[in-house]
Specification:
By secondary structure, the protein is an alpha/beta fold. It has eleven helices and 19 strands. A seven-stranded mixed sheet has the order 13-12-11-14-15-19-16, sandwiched between helices. It has a five-stranded parallel sheet with strand order 3-2-4-1-5, sandwiched between helices. A five-stranded mixed sheet has the order 6-7-10-8-9, with helices on one face. It starts with 11 loop residues before the first strand and ends in a 15-residue tail after the last strand.
Length: 423
């Protein structure tokens, strides 16, 4: 473990600035910028400062995050002020600086964020408005937030983001949604552009914009809820899909919580990992699938359902588990009889983590019965029947019963990344 860097002799001033520039800053913020010997920020932000801010001006390089410790070290003996857009602690540089210096090393002077300005213009209560950032992130992640009647604010990556968002909404059945693009919020050149997603034809405008979406689904849009058990037709699949009712029970046993990591072993169509990720924006997941065609399908399903951060590992388990971060939960949906698979997953699982395995074969069921006897947990059989036409009447068609073993690893057990050979 590397030693923590020595504290800087001066706290770093982090000054939020808006499109209104210098006139919009408080007296305290102005004084911090005048007193700084080094001014660090983006070119647009630095250009907003008057000559009376006489400190040396240093632009952020790209990529930005790796440059933070280097720039702080280079100027450690001088008074530093860092410029940020709006509120530095809301998707801003303040996070990276706090990670490097700790809160005691910062003097943060926030400005109203673009989100605060947007809600003020729209008359939307901030606490009822969901914010999605697409800055440095794929537009596909917006799909997880699309629900009838919801109000969303999207932080744009550039001038092309509104058109990309309109296209995504239309492709997901939300073409009737109203879009308002708010540019240069708080500045002299503030401008608003209005329209619907399906009919969006506005050319790209200012790169500094926020998109307000009043979600409205078309009549034929597939309804996707917020709890596990999405409709089977939400997934592209070749039959290798944990069906809706079994999937809901499986996610209930896995019990996703914010920030936790899932291994989905034998991913199939990726449904378990995808719905784990949809449980909370901070959840993480790795789907391991040996078939390259299915692995590509998992990626498409993840994009379609708004969780493009799903990591897909193509290859057989347990060898493909080598080097992965230890999980908080493991789901095994296929390949239970592969030599060493269950042992590798149990070994890697963090103390207090959950392991859930499903099977429909007698051979794998016998294996789960053995493990239930050794480790405890819960062994259940899930049976689902669907009503179907029988001549002029209606009868039940039984799906193959699923045997499920779920178990929590004792808190005093060890855990480590699986070290198996990838060859």
């Amino acid at each position: 473990m590397s030693p923590s860097p020595a504290p800087l002799p001066h706290s770093v001033s982090v000054v939020g600035i808006g499109a209104d520039g210098w006139p919009g800053l408080s007296g305290t913020a102005r004084e911090a910028l005048r007193a700084a010997e080094v001014l660090i920020g983006g070119a647009r932000q630095l250009d907003l400062l008057p000559p009376e801010c006489a400190g040396a001006r240093v632009g952020w390089p790209s990529p930005l995050r790796p440059a933070v410790p280097r720039l702080l070290a280079e100027h450690r003996e001088r008074r530093i002020a860092v410029l940020a857009s709006g509120d530095p602690m809301f998707y801003g540089i303040g996070r990276a600086l706090a990670e490097e210096l700790g809160p005691e090393g910062l003097h943060v002077l926030p400005h109203p964020s673009s989100v605060s300005y947007a809600c003020a213009r729209l008359g939307w209560p901030l606490e009822d408005t969901e914010v999605v950032t697409l800055v440095g992130r794929p537009a596909a992640r917006l799909a997880a937030s699309l629900h009838e009647g919801r109000r969303l604010l999207v932080l744009s990556a550039d001038a092309g983001t509104p058109a990309a968002v309109a296209a995504l909404l239309t492709s997901h059945g939300f073409g009737p949604s109203r879009l308002r693009v708010l540019e240069q919020l708080g500045g002299e050149d503030e401008r608003h552009v209005d329209g619907t997603a399906a009919e969006w034809a506005h050319p790209p405008g200012d790169r500094l914009n926020v998109i307000a979406i009043a979600c409205r689904a078309s009549a034929d849009a597939l309804r996707l809820g917020t709890v596990p058990g999405l409709p089977d037709e939400a997934y592209e699949h070749d039959g290798q899909l944990t069906k809706r009712h079994t999937r809901a029970a499986t996610l209930g046993a896995l019990a996703p919580a914010p920030g936790e990591l899932l291994w989905d072993v034998g991913g199939g169509s990726g449904s378990i990992a995808i719905e784990w990720l949809r449980a909370h924006p901070s959840c993480r997941a790795v789907s391991v699938e040996r078939d390259p065609v299915r692995a590509e399908r998992i990626t498409r399903n993840a994009d379609r359902l708004g969780v493009p951060a799903l990591q897909v590992v193509t290859g057989p388990a347990p060898t493909s588990l080598a080097g992965l971060e230890a999980p908080d939960a493991v789901f095994i949906g296929g390949g239970l009889t592969a030599p060493g698979l269950l042992d590798a997953c149990w070994e890697a699982l963090r103390p207090g983590g959950r392991l859930v395995a499903n099977t429909v074969t007698l051979e794998s069921e016998a294996l789960l019965a053995e493990r239930h006897k050794a480790h405890g947990g819960e062994l259940v059989r899930l049976a689902v029947a669907h009503a179907v036409p029988v001549g002029g009447f209606t009868g039940w068609r039984q799906a193959m019963p699923v045997t499920q073993w779920s178990v929590t690893k004792p808190p005093d057990s060890g855990a480590r990344s699986y070290k198996g050979d990838r060859s």
